[in-house]
Design goal:
The longest helix has 27 residues, at 93-119. The chain has eight helices and two strands. It has one domain (5-221). It starts with a helix and ends with a helix. The protein has a two-stranded antiparallel sheet. Strand 1 and strand 2 (132-137) form a beta hairpin. Helix 1 packs parallel to helix 8 (206-221) and helix 3 packs parallel to helix 5 (147-164). By secondary structure, it is mainly alpha-helical. It has helices at 5-29, 39-58, 64-89, 93-119, 147-164, 168-187, 192-203, 206-221; strands spanning 124-129, 132-137.
Length: 222
């Protein structure tokens, strides 16, 4: 599979207007879902920055700032926002309390990973490998935790709220994301961050279907 500036910018061009549409529909008819429906727009912005990374690499420029913007989403934003979005939709008290814990864990985990990238420029390096971008990062955890453990913790923080959310539409999205994590790990482990974020971005188009069914169900009930 070949990824490129064209692929990233194309994904961004599709996702940003769709994300705006989803937010508009959420504000009009599905207010509890607006946090989760922000995801296509956020993924679109993230893919735009990766498109800039591709351009900088192809032109021999320093892609650090575009890469920093990209990993803001991958290493911080998703860890905090996804549990928060699930918390907003959830109606069961026990699960809301569980998701609240994940919001805090995700925020702390994300800040510990991302903030050093701002302070130490050499903690974030990247190169093109097999038609993908490899983000090579140094993490605070590296001295005492294997990277696979850090990745598992990340996956748990993101996947548990999605998979255990009482809302079936969000749960379906969680299953899609879980499959994308497995596929990216097995086949694209050399550039997991870039490839998984791209797959997740494409999967966020699912929210258009979700909006359609939510509005349809609302009309039937009314």
């Amino acid at each position: 599979m070949c990824f490129s500036a064209t692929a990233s910018f194309a994904a961004s061009a599709v996702l940003i207007p769709i994300g705006i549409y989803c937010l508009k529909k959420a504000s009009e008819q599905q207010k509890p879902y607006w946090l989760i429906l922000l995801l296509p727009l956020a993924f679109g912005v993230q893919q735009f920055f990766e498109g800039l990374v591709w351009l900088d690499l192809s032109q021999g420029k320093d892609p650090h700032y575009a890469a920093l913007a990209f990993v803001f989403f991958s290493h911080l934003f998703w860890l905090f926002w996804i549990p928060l979005a699930c918390y907003k939709v959830e109606t069961q008290l026990v699960k809301r309390r569980l998701f609240l814990i994940f919001i805090v864990l995700g925020g702390i985990h994300g800040l510990v990973m991302f903030v050093p990238f701002i302070i130490f420029e050499n903690w974030l390096e990247l190169k093109q490998v097999q038609h993908s971008i490899e983000y090579t990062t140094t993490l605070v955890y590296d001295e005492f935790l294997p990277r696979i453990v850090v990745r598992i913790v990340y996956a748990i923080i993101v996947l548990v709220p999605l998979l255990f959310c009482s809302d079936r539409y969000i749960k379906i999205f969680g299953i899609f994301i879980m499959i994308s994590v497995v596929v990216s790990t097995i086949f694209f482990g050399y550039a997991f961050i870039s490839v998984w974020c791209y797959f997740a971005a494409i999967l966020s188009l699912y929210f258009v279907v979700m909006i359609f069914h939510l509005n349809k169900n609302k009309l039937e009930v009314s």
